[in-house]
Every structure is written in C-alpha cells, then in structure tokens.
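Hi C.,

You asked whether I'd gotten around to modeling the 263-residue construct. I have! Everything is below, sequence then structure, no commentary in between.
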Amino acid sequence: MAKLTEKIGYGMGDMASSMFWKIFSYYLPIFYSDVFNLSLTHTATLMFVTRVWDTVSDPMMGAISDRTETRWGKYRPYLLWFSLPFAISGVLLFSTPDCGEQGRLVYAYITYILMMTVYTGINVPYASMLGVMTDDSYEKTVFSSYRMFFAYGGSFIALYSWEPLCKLFIDYQPLFPVNSLSDAWQGAMIVIALMCFLLFIGCFLLTREHIKFERGDNLLNDFRSLIRNFPWWIITGAALCTNLFNTVRGATVAYYFKSLVSH
C-alpha cells in the first residue's frame, strides 16, 4: 500500500505541469500580440511550428527515458534534472528583449521551442512514472485521482493568480524594478516558475520507483509495434481532437474577455 505522502508527491508533479500549461494556453498568445508586439500572423505561425515539433519530441523523449538507468530509476531523475531548466525556460518565454521586430521574432521561436522541449523532457517521464510506482491497478487509479486533483488545483491557482500578480508588480513599483507591462508579466512568471520548481522537487523527493523493467527493445521494433497497435491510433486521434479543442479555446478566451466582456 502506497503512502499518502507518495500520492501527494505524485500529484505535485502534475500540479506544476498544469500551472505552466494553463499559462501557456490562455495567456501566451495575447502576451505575444499585446505585450511582446508580434503580429497575429507571426504568433499563429509560431504556435503551429512549436506544436509540430512537440509531436516529434514527445516520442523521442519516451524512447530516451525508457532506456535510462540510474540509481533513482528510469523516469524519476528527470524531475530533478529538468526542474530548474523548466523554471528558467518559462521565465525566458515571458521576457521581452530590447530589440527590433525580427530580433523579437527569432527570440520568440528559440524560447518557445526551448520551453516545449524542456516541458516534454520533464512531463513525458513524469507521466510514465505511474507504471513503475505500483503494479496494483487499484493503486494506479488512486494515484491518477491524486494527479487529477492536483492538476486541476494547479490550473485554478495559475489562472486565478496571474492577473493579480501582474497588477501587484505594477502597483508596487517602489518595491519591484518594473518599468513596463512586459516587466510585470515577467515578474508574474518568475513567481509561477518558482512554485513549479519547488513542486517538481517535492515530487522527486516524495516518490519512488518500486517496479523494475528490463531495458526497452530497439527503436525500430518499438516503431513497428506502435504502427500495428490499432487502439493506440484510436487514443491518438481522440487526444488530437481534445488538444485541438483545448488549444483553440485557450488561445481565444483572453481576446474574448478583453474585446467583448470588458467593454
């Protein structure tokens, strides 16, 4: 029977991931267009390119983590190794360099692709951890329940606190070196990133990998097995539809409230 602390620790990992993902989904597009000053065309193209890269990097990271062997396990070490890069990448993503439009566009591509790569580097191993934490199906369901509870909690905290954090940095300029709206957004992201860093460290410290598996087969055999796996194609199709809906909803909701509800 898994300890309560381990269940809470496992939930903390998805809490961190969900906090970042909600900020990206709901606030990054409007940050690029209204604060970072990219055109909507450039913003949309950037979002598309990074999503294409994400479809490539996810299976690559899965293959790498499956073949990782350390004293901490296969997947758990990535929580430690990527927690700080995860936080730093998020801050860089919401930073606005003092350069021209082309310079900002290049910076946006570099930092967004970097962020999605680091996000994959920590989130794919985290999601795979459930298979090595217990072999009991009931306990897996319990772990998943804790994960979802903390994920929704993290999403609520991130979305509820973002605008108050930005306002805090603007209203208390004598305490914070804020000279513009972009500085306030960067300051808010620093707070969120610090919280996510601590949550991932907590997840690493409180969890353990109890199940040992043999090193994975070669990549070509893995790929062949995947292609012939019809249920996997069904799940992939459902996931693509769900992610498309969530992406469109998240990318437009901030513009909706700014343009219609607030007027």
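If it helps when you're writing up: The chain has nine helices and no strands.

Thanks,
B.
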